[in-house]
Write a structure and sequence with these properties.
heterodimer, A: about 210 residues, mainly alpha, 7 helices, globular, B: about 500 residues, 21 helices, about 75% helix
Chain lengths: ~210, ~500
Amino acid sequence: MINLFAVIFTMTLIYLASGNRLVTYIRILALQGLLLFGLAYLELKHISIGSLLFILVETLVFKAFIVPYFLYMLIKRNHFHNERDADSPNFFSLFKVSLIIILSFILSYTLNNEHLKITYFTASVSAILTGILLIVRRKKIITHIVGYMVFENGIFLLSLAIGGELPMIVNIGVLLDLITCLLLFGVFVSKIGEIHKTEELDQLSELKD
Amino acid sequence: MDVILIYFLGAVLISIAMFINKNTLIDHLLYIPFVVLQVMLNLNAAISLNKYEGGNLVPFLNQEPFQTLSNWLFINEFEGYYFRTDGIGLIFLTVLTLISTITIIHSIIYSVKKGDAIPEMEVYNGSLVLLIATMSGVLISRHIGLMWAFLEATTLCSSMLIYHNRDKSALEAAWKYIFVCSISVSMAFVGILLLGIAAQDTAELDLTVDALIKNAPLMKPSWLMITFLLVLTGYSAKMGVLPLFTVDIDAKDVAPSSIGALFSGGLMNVGFVAIYRFYEIFANTSIHHWMNSILVIVGFGSIFFATVYIIKVKNYKRMFAYSSVEHAGLALLALASGGIGYFAMILHLIMHSFTKASLFYQMSQVYRVFHAKSYDKVGGYFRLNPAGGIIMILGLLCVTAMPPSGLFVSELMIFKSLFYNGNRLYLYVALGTLFLLCFIFYALGANILKLLFTPLSEEMHSYEKVSPWESATQFLLLGLVLYFGIHPPQEITDFIMYSVEKLPQLPTK
């Protein structure tokens, strides 16, 4: 079951690469949140009930519902359009993400660490790199935030790959930062829409030497 | 009394009160309890470190009234595990307390001078308190996960301060800062998680600095290398060095000058401490030499880019921001060169904090006189504001490391450690750096002298007269830099030596 969830998670990355609609991105983020909830439950059943509840609430409420809903509202309020002008045809995006997944697999096997869970590690490295790919190659501001959230999901999976758990105080700090960060993203994106009248990041080029 | 709990709780409550309150006077009064809390945290850190070292470290802390205070304060087990100051943490916490207090004074002056013209000053005040508290959190954290959480929190508070002017440039700088810093700091978190995987080889997943120093020699070097690269890249945005220094430049340019001073004099040190923690952890492993090579590349690369841009820019705040990149690069070279370089690195960062903060505070006055910060719109500043002019001259002497400034002493020691390192690469790097510093000296000198003495093409009919008292804090800071250059106090030099004594003392071969 754990492997199945990790494989589905990796497949969502491929779907993400082929999509151009912003709503599709948000649905994928919600699905990833649900998968992370399942993975966290199956993997961390043995830890203290307080920590387990915290992580389950974080994945289910925050990652699967709040983040997608927040992004959906952001798109609706700012009348953002779909990502039509992606850097290259979908075929090449698919190719790049597939290559990332294959390289992540090779990396996981090469590291050959007894404490490393290969399925998680592959899925997490793939997600981190796919997130960076979205941020670097796409132009819309909202797609960058989606890329950041995929990146964060990859980091969450990596923390599962470690097997142990970080102390509660660290988890709370990380989650608080993430929530505040997302809220500030929302504020700044809305302001950019208002002041610059754009959703393209290329337009933000006033500050240069 | 749980000082740390009271400090963070107090800081959060004060900032919430500032966010809610619309009365400027009450906001200013709320700064007083915060400064008291900050000083209390600093004293607590000093007393607890002194206790930890058996009372021999700072002898005057054994006398009254500190002894009574020492009995009154205690660190419980929880706090001791997550928060404990070491030598470096205490040094930079003290610098931060001083710079923060002066920044608060200048923020109040800024608020009073601008009056109702400033939008949402309450957001500025609340964010400033939170930024100082989170920076202090980074400096006293012993758990690298918690340190990460505080460092990311500094990004969030900083972005609100960068956005303060609410115009197009502020919005662009704030967006770039929060987005790039969040991504980069997240990369550092990936590094921390990979270190967690490596730590499992030692049968203990304890991510406190002390446990990691003990266990790091047992970990696989390849994991440690990946971790160090990710952490260095991630925290470079905070320290303002290669590869991610650009967002830091925009931030210092666009944010109010007193915030630029806090970024240069406080946040840069915080970023350095975050990188230094990992250096400290890995210093006694087989990757020490490799780590030094990486630091040399990053340090020299930072100085190179700083030189290119200092020559190119046409704006004083950006010029000072690039000068910070240069000094951060020098500090990394000092760390890599080892030996006396460790001492020089700490001294250099302290002196740089005082100097650069003074220059940024002074830029606030320059802006009030000319309503501009670009080279072609200013001139004759010495005649218009003599006290500010003297600050600029002293600042120029200090920032270019001319004798008798403390930066001259620290740079002399940095080059000594590079020349006597015994490694040919370090010799070439030292020569290359000296060559680049000549250009920086020329550019800073020419531009600051232009600001001071070149008359404006059009006579200014009306300008704001700045009270000389507003430069008092800058005289204090620059006076300290000159004092350290002429007669560094023995107690302080001993304490700096103590703070780096655990690093490998022999220079890299």
